[in-house]
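Illustration: RNA-directed DNA polymerase.
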Amino acid sequence: MNQQSEAEKKVEKSSSSRDVKPPEEARALDGAVAGDRIEKGSNPPELRLIDKLLNIDNLNEAFIKVVDNKGAAGVDGMEVGDLKLFLRKNWPTIEQQLKQGKYKPQPVKKVEIPKPDGGVRMLGIPTVLDRFLQQALLQVLTPIWEPTFSDNSFGFRPGRKAIDAVKRAKGYQEEGYRIVIDMDLSKFFDEIPHDRLMSKIMLKTPGEREIHKLIHGYLTAGMMKDGLIEDRSKGSPQGSPCSPLLSNIVLDELDKELEKRGHRFCRYADDVNVYVKTKRAGDRAAASIQNFVEKKMKLKVNKEKSKVDRPVKRKFLGFSFYYKKGKQMGIRVAPKSVTRLKETLRDLFHQGRGRSLPGFIHNDLNPVIRGWFNYYRPADMKSLSQDLDEWIRHRLRNILWRQWKRNWTRFLNLRKGGLSEEHAVRSAFNQRGPWFNSGASHMNLAFPKKYFDELRLFSFVDAYKVYTASQESSSPT
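Result:
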């Protein structure tokens, strides 16, 4: 859901006349929409949902979030930076359509991106206007459903992260539930049945005809690709603000069923892990849960990817587990996650061969590896941090060696790096390939870790030390 198309552009900067204002005020609608203002905290509970959606404070909050998220243009080509002007000209008509239940969402732009494990993931990019209205709708609907969701549901919920689900799974294993039913829902976002979803929404929000028609309009809006519009009778494409909440509404039925059966489980969006004590119990429960999902919920289970196994052999949200002393379990980065990172970085390093090394590190490399570390840092990754740092420095030395090209240039740079003349000559003229030389002792001596620290290369080892120290200082004694 977080991938963007090549059409993505940055939002236009605020005009100089607004530079003195606080960020929220500078990005707010600022007169682009009109209406009776209802102050925050004074929105009466008896107000209908459409009135809460059109509340100026709710719309301002939605506008700021859409601007901050940036994102690609939809089928109409309008960029985020054009939204305020568009609303200033067209809001009275849009508001009237919303109040009358006559607003028609535009088709979403269909984008297919490859999955790491094969196949493609379908994204639907709404227009900027529809993203704005969906965000406003999301802010109204979330307080209604959020308190009713299961404590074992972690995906796309306020104050909950993927690592919280992983830690919950770790706790189950330490209690003795060391067999996992790793259930994969086949193309879940593409298979959501509209009729069952709408019935749940209407049951929870009776009488809210305008909201029901708006949600149904978003569900059935076509998907456009290459100028052709495909009708939709099921599914809620990833890429829209409301899609995560709608998916949780659908899968809450599964959560409630698992709770009723007394299962230990964790769910993050459509990633479902159920923990039992024996393989036999796992096989029996897996068959029963699959039957419930397919017969009652009208969804599909991917039988090839769904397994009953030991958690140490599976991955969950990019993490895996390992046995420690006694009943303790450890959290580690799943090997596939490391492989995927290296594949991404190999492509990046290839692009960096003709670039200035400091610029490449700052603008391209650091954002990727820092983001990856921030997600996986709760795992035990002391030795992995060392391996990744060495691997990355090897790749950067490889870029340097290739950029020098001529043996004489290599000799001069090795001398600048502090090597003796004899050592530099022997190394620069050894006729070995770039990969060998970039990993050899002469390049490690001439361009050690200190050299890359001065270029501000992100270090997994250093960052992990800081993180673990902060965790230790904040943990109760």
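Reading the tokens back as a structure: The longest strand covers residues 108-114.
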